[in-house]
């Protein structure tokens, strides 16, 4: 309090000169380097106050604070553009998925600019860098034996000649008999649903009746990582600033045992899977989207690895 009172009494003239980083902003030896990201907003809607308050505004406030402290700060964000929700919105509006992304990326950019959010760079995930980095991470996982192949039962619409993602299926809930349940969840009773469990399923694209057929997918072999993950978590919990909620959820996953997680989808809109036998599939958006933080930084600067592969700074 005394230090704050002294600084206030001396006035702005006594403050250190503001740090002016070079463009692009890169880590500087001997300085405190801060990389800030906020959750990538999904591209299929117009942002509202909840989106801004929930993640963008808090990160913006922190970025401004860091710059006032003369810390070398980079704040990046961008629109999350792949996945089923984009395909669904494209069907609704009679546009291609790329046209939907272009339309809503521009709307997002304008709104954040109007709010004066201080991004150093606001990008998007539908870029060549995203494909390159996501496929490189996939190849590394494959080479190290962290991927599995398995066959799953899935609904296929023979009229549309495609396997149906959860959002493209509608039917009667097997739990409460609600007639407009989605292929992933019932909005009436809230229960999670496997699409093949729906009664009287319908393809939302053509209203045809889909059939259950087997399809091959790739899975991340999470059980293989458990041995290495547990000691890392113990160390991180002891030294890091985890919220009580984050600790609880993580502990429950570990306690119940990690399960293999599917990372591919039978969709057209997404990052292509670079492996024979799976080239007609794309990566599941939750495998692909977090890599967007890296690829957006790579679109900002060719030296992106100095931010993402630089633990010493």
TrEMBL record:
Key word ATP-binding present in the record? Answer: yes
User: Which InterPro entries does the UniProt record give?
Assistant: aa-tRNA-synth_I_CS, Met-tRNA_ligase_1, Met-tRNA_synth, Methionyl/Leucyl_tRNA_Synth, MetRS_core, MetRS_Zn, Rossmann-like_a/b/a_fold
Does this UniProt record's set of keywords contain Nucleotide-binding?
yes
**What is a single cellular component term in the Gene Ontology annotation?**
aminoacyl-tRNA synthetase multienzyme complex
Please state every residue range assigned to the domain named Methionyl/Leucyl tRNA synthetase. Answer: 34-311
Read off the PROSITE patterns from this record.
Answer: AA_TRNA_LIGASE_I
**Superkingdom of source:** Eukaryota
Q: Name one GO molecular function term.
A: methionine-tRNA ligase activity
Return one Gene Ontology term, BP aspect.
Answer: methionyl-tRNA aminoacylation
* Catalytic activity entry: tRNA(Met) + L-methionine + ATP = L-methionyl-tRNA(Met) + AMP + diphosphate
What keywords is this UniProt entry annotated with?
Aminoacyl-tRNA synthetase, ATP-binding, Ligase, Nucleotide-binding, Protein biosynthesis
UniProt similarity note: Belongs to the class-I aminoacyl-tRNA synthetase family.
Read off the NCBIfam families from this record: metG
Protein name per UniProt:
Methionine--tRNA ligase, cytoplasmic
Organism of origin: Zapornia atra (Henderson crake)
């Amino acid at each position: 309090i005394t230090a704050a009172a002294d600084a206030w009494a001396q006035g702005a003239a006594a403050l250190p000169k503001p740090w002016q980083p070079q463009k692009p902003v890169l880590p500087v030896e001997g300085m405190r380097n801060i990389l800030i990201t906020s959750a990538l907003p999904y591209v299929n809607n117009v942002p509202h106050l909840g989106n801004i308050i929930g993640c963008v505004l808090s990160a913006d406030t922190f970025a401004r604070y860091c710059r006032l402290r003369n810390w070398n700060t980079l704040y990046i964000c961008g629109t999350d553009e792949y996945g089923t929700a984009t395909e669904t919105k494209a069907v609704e509006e009679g546009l291609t998925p790329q046209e939907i992304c272009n339309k809503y990326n521009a709307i997002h950019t304008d709104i954040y600019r109007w709010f004066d959010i201080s991004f150093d760079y606001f990008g998007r995930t539908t870029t060549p860098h995203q494909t390159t980095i996501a496929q490189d991470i996939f190849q590394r996982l494959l080479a190290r034996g962290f991927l599995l192949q398995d066959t799953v039962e899935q609904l296929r619409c023979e009229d549309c000649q495609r396997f149906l993602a959860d959002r493209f299926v509608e039917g009667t809930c097997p739990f409460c008999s609600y007639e407009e349940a989605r292929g992933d969840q019932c909005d009436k009773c809230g229960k999670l649903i496997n699409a093949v469990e729906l009664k009287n399923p319908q393809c939302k694209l053509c209203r045809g009746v889909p059939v259950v057929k087997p399809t091959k997918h790739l899975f991340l072999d999470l059980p293989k990582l458990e041995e290495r993950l547990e000691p890392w978590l113990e160390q991180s919990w002891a030294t890091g600033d985890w919220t009580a909620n984050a600790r609880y959820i993580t502990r429950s996953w570990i306690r119940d045992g990690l399960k293999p997680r599917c990372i591919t989808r039978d969709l057209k809109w997404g990052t292509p899977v670079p492996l024979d036998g799976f080239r007609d599939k794309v990566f599941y958006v939750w495998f692909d989207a977090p890599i967007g933080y890296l690829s957006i930084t790579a679109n900002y600067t060719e030296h992106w690895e100095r931010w993402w592969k630089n633990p010493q700074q």
